[in-house]
Write a structure and sequence with these properties.
By secondary structure, the chain is of the alpha/beta class. The chain has 23 helices and 20 strands. This is Bifunctional polysaccharide deacetylase/glycosyltransferase family 2 protein. Keywords: Glycosyltransferase, Membrane, Transferase, Transmembrane, Transmembrane helix.
Amino acid sequence: MTTPPPPSPPARGRRRAPTRIERAAGRAAALQRPRVLLALLLLLALTCVMLLDGYLRAEVGGDQRVRTGASANDVPEDVLDGGPILTFPGGRATTVSVPDRTIALTFDDGPDATWTPQVLEILEEYDVPGTFFLVGSMVARHPDIVRDLVEQGNEVGVHTFTHVDLSYQSEARVTREIEQTQLALAGAAGITTTLFRAPYSSETDAIDDYSWPVYKKLGEEGYTSVFIDTDSDDWKRPGVSKIVEWATPEDGEGASVLFHDAGGERSQTIEALPKYIEKMKAKGYTFTTVSGAMAAQQPTGGPAAAGTSGAEGTAARAADSDDALQAAHHRATGATLWEGRALVAAVAVAEWTVPALSVGLLVVGVAVMGRFGLMLILARRHHRQRNRRRFGWGPPVTGPVSVVVPAYNEKECIANTLRSLARSTHPIEIIVVDDGSTDGTAEIAESLGLPGVRVIRQANAGKPAALDNGVRHARYDIVVMMDGDTVFEPDTVRHLVQPFADPAVGAVAGNAKVGNRRTLIGAWQHIEYVMGFNLDRRMYDLLRCMPTIPGAIGAFRREAVLQVGGMSDDTLAEDTDITIALHRAGWRVVYQEHARAWTEAPGSLKQLWSQRYRWSYGTMQALWKHRGSLKDKGPSGRFGRVGMPLVVLFQVVTPLFAPLIDVFTLYSMIFIDFRSALLAWLAVLGVQLLCAAYAFRLDREKYRYLLMMPLQQIAYRQMMYLVLIHSCVTALTGGRLRWQKLKRTGEVGTPAGAG
């Protein structure tokens, strides 16, 4: 016997040229990576917008503590007994009082969209300036009001960014609260300020050992801390007369007087303010800003230098930062100005986005709950209707049918698939279309020697082409299509073809089951198949708008397939494409729950992502391709009138919002009300468990898999959302994928082996 010579080794340094499929796969992978990244960045951006909005509302990082009753041993006596304006010239604490018969009218906690404009109207009407200590988060939310306030000639000061008691905060938090407020002022009005008033502060004798270091630090940085002499206590809403009385200083003394233009219902303040101004002017008082009061107390100053207004009506209204009334203002320039504008712009986006999302989520939530209710009602009706003792599609269908099995590199599964078909109780012919396999799939199919099996070889052209080839070679009028990794039960084909007794039926969707459900990923997909796919199909069947016949198990009239032009490769979801095409051609598509097929689901997260990405993107392509169904008339337009809106709403729009529901829930648990948010999440989970349990009951599945559903909602569902976002990004940016081959194990050998 002659021994053949060993094959010559490949030349050194030379590598095998990649095949056309490998090159296409490489291009697809290169396109997917940036799209996945973009999808993640979109979700991250929305999360950041929510966190920014929460920070503005003091839900993120909020601190409601207020210190009271602390000692003041470290605070100098002349500060405790001094005037309401505290400065640190040369590092030495100095207080300044408001001149006699002078009012420094101050307002805290604004700006507010309702009350601050009304306060400004009153001040302008009476030609009176005010000093507004603004909360940075409110400045960023209402920049137009701040701009008007400054242009009117009023003075502004810092009241922190989130209205926290700084005596409890770290030095870094104190710095952040001040700097962020300054950025907000720069973005809103193009200025910064040297005035500061601490939240919850009052007179200087209330300074304690915890707040004193804060004032010293800010004083060393050039800030002037402003306290009060007289408090209107308008926040208590004691009545207009009381507000006026409490705000009036005694015996002609000057005073820094506190009112509030935000932080609550301020109608009494608005009503009291004109009365107060008239009363104080009648007593001979003039009004000025904090800077005006300080200028009036300078040795070289005087009433004129103070720029006061009142009886003489000499109040300055210039917006220049050198004006005495606005001496604390400095023009923002450079990085401060642009960072401030960026902050205001980001807040504007958050202010618009979060409420819009909230409304959208409310609508989606109602729609999802409505869908669950509709699914339960229609699924029950479908089950009872199809399982009645007298129900029938017509005369039994007993004639032989063709089974088309497209296969590409299915050496692990093809033998099990064909052996399961050989046990069929219904007469069939089996057509295996080998789509250019390189692993010997065709040879394995031929070597089994099973009766009625024909193997057709073709160059690799994709699954739609393989299915079309099989349909052309089919001898019978009914064609069953299945995947090369799927296993049928003996009665599957018999059950699947019975609806064709109704001449209006053009296609039948079978009941696809996950065979490899022993793993965690497999169990999650098992829950999804039973609840999400099969329960949906019962609903769509009764509504006569079935969107998809699963590739794992479906049957078609050969006449109907040829009428719509066969299996198109225009989309990645050829099964959805042809199903919609059949609807538009006037054929009825139904669901046969008793025709079960056991398929091998993806065994890894990477394969699962690849499969669901193709499904999701392909569905979008099919919907776009058949968008004309919205205009179709008569029975053929039923899918456009009913099915298309349902699929878009529940398979595209709702899942897109679903990650935000989870983000909102997590956000609420951490920053708002953990107990309420948790109860809401558990309530939704309970509804989903109820639907899943009913779906399992209808399919006679074991309930133990439902124990994995809470974890599925936390982990698996998030991945499906990202897949959908990835698909939407691909749809918007363009892209095309080929028939993707998943790695198979051949684990699904028989239906019994599915567990």
